[in-house]
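Reagents: none. Just compute today. tRNA N6-adenosine threonylcarbamoyltransferase.
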Amino acid sequence: MKVLGIETSCDETGVAVYDTDAGLRAHALYSQIALHAEYGGVVPELASRDHVRKLLPLIRQTLAEAGLGIEDLDGVAYTAGPGLVGALLVGAGVARALAWALEVPAIGVHHMEGHLLAPLLEDGPAGRPQPPFVALLVSGGHTQLIHVEAIGRYRLLGETLDDAAGEAFDKTAKLMGLPYPGGPQLAMLAERGRPQAFRFSRPMTDRPGLDFSFSGLKTQVLLAWRDSDQSDRTRADVARGFEDAVVDTLAIKCGRALDASGCDTLVVAGGVGANKRLRARLQAMAEQRGGRVAFPRPAFCTDNGAMIAFAGALRLRAGQHDDASVRVTPRWDMASLEPVVSG
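Predicted 3D structure written out:
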């Protein structure tokens, strides 16, 4: 089954073709970072307009790279939420129109389920991880620990009570004067920082539970930066101290989640999942515990069409599809999803 995937939840236009027999055939991504940089963040109306401008050319490009004609598609998957409502409607409208014209099924995919399944998209050295496992979804909008009993059967173990980890990266970078998007800039800067030059708290690790909170950490960094000499050396050291605090906090909570669920496999997805220090720390933790951790390749940590094509293909192959109406769900609880039962 050849499925076209469309991702337009925020400021990246992603398109991919996934073949349930041959795997990922092709994918393309257009980022709007340059468009939004002058505003210091995503402007929803501009994001929607740019999706309109780029989506059809990307679909043509991706089909050509896959060696397929549009008539070869067996289904269409698109991000239906959560996300920016205008941006979501662009992808949903194009997807539903294509599916109607081709007389093939279409399905709206939960954006975070796409991220959660991204580590299963391609075979790793140890093969694809199979449920049950614990998933850490860590991005600009979400920080969640989820027990994955089966595809489509998810139980929330813990989540952030305020800022997500990626959001904290971006806001901390901004208060230190780093350019947009700040999170990746801060991570690069932290590579030059001295460990222990600044030590910040590991929020909510001194009490039981699996929830997160990063707003207080952000405030600690603000105070430390404000009272420092604000030199380049200090900026790198503060960035390192902040990154170490976030990585330690995530690792401690992941260990607790594995213990609580009785699982030995951890899956990590979302934009912050590309962070090198986080990957190294979780890999070391998994080896020490005699378990396993799986990541998507860095290109599939951030928003992309491949994860939507894959998640949609799993559901379409199981016989699930939506009706012909164009609907999106900007706020959508992943626990409400139907389980996937393979035929």
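Residues 301 and 313 are 19 Å apart (CA to CA).
Action item: order primers for follow-up constructs.
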